[in-house]
Amino acid sequence: MSARHLLLLPVVTVLIGLSACDSGEPAGPSPTASAPTSAAGAPSASPAAASPAAGTADCPTATALQTLVELPKDWSFGEVKCFKDWATADPQGPTAGDGVYLFRYVAGTGWKYYDQGSDWDCKDLGISEAPFCVSEPTKSAPKSAPKPSSGTATSAKCPSAKTLEALVELPKGWTFGSVDCVKDWAGADPEGPGVGDGSYLFHFVPGTGWKYYGDGSGYDCVDLGLKEAPFCIY
């Protein structure tokens, strides 16, 4: 029996030594899974494209420009071409002519309607050349179609000349004089060099505000849903 104990003693000693070694080395903290702060590989949301009125000078879409003007019934914008801070939009629809709508980007404000027609004088636009203007003076392009509003005038009350001036970019040196209002229509008489006999016509759109509709003279009151007004014939 004594020989048996002597044989077991070294084994016990080894086990005690191993136990001492294990206890001398503190076990490191067990790794814990932390919740990921973001999904791996999830693409970050890209900023939404700003509308013309939002202040971006990027070339606007046809849909974006359509929000700046009230087009005649069944009209829409087709191709949009941009050059520096100018943009043209081709109107499409019944009775649409060969002219285009011209918009300009105004820093701090956004895109604003400027004119409608063709063959503008590049000098008048402050540029040397562009696909939509000519470098030498030509007769001023006829104006006979809707223009835009920035939508800032939201009250249906008869707007002031200053309020309507904020909705369009008038030619240099022009301002609005008297304003005549009938129901949800307003006619503003332009004043300045080279001004003709026509007036600017604006229409109040519920939920949006005043929007440019057209400029010229001889509007048909029936087309405007009116019986009579200073700016239409009946």
In terms of DSSP E residues, the strand content is 25-35%
Number of helices: 4
Total tally of structural domains: 2
Largest sheet: 4 strands, antiparallel
The share of residues in helices is 10-25%
Q: Roughly how many Å apart are the termini?
A: 133 Å
Q: Using DSSP, what is the number of strands?
A: 12
The largest sheet has its strands arranged as 1-2-3-4
| Secondary-structure-derived class | alpha+beta
Any low-confidence stretches, pLDDT <50, length ≥5? 1-21, 23-54, 137-152
The shape is: globular
Order of helices and strands: HHEEEEEHEHEEEEEE
* Average pLDDT rating: 74
Based on CA atoms alone, the radius of gyration comes out at 36 Å
Protein name: Secreted protein
Signal peptide: 1-20
Keywords: Signal
Biased composition (Low complexity): 139-150
Summarize the structure.
This protein has about 230 residues and is of the alpha+beta class. It has helices at about 1-25, 60-65, 120-125, 160-165, and strands spanning about 75-85, 85-90, 100-105, 110-115, 120, 135, 175-180, 185-190, 200-205, 210-215, 220, 230-234.
Describe the protein in words.
The chain has four helices and twelve strands, in the order ααβββββαβαββββββ. By secondary structure, it is α+β, with helices and mostly antiparallel strands. It has two domains: 90 residues, no CATH class; 86 residues, no CATH class. The strands form four sheets. It has a four-stranded antiparallel sheet with strand order 1-2-3-4. A four-stranded antiparallel sheet has the order 7-8-9-10. A two-stranded parallel ribbon has the order 5-6. It is globular, with a radius of gyration of 36 Å. The N terminus is likely disordered. It comes from Micromonospora lupini str. Lupac 08.
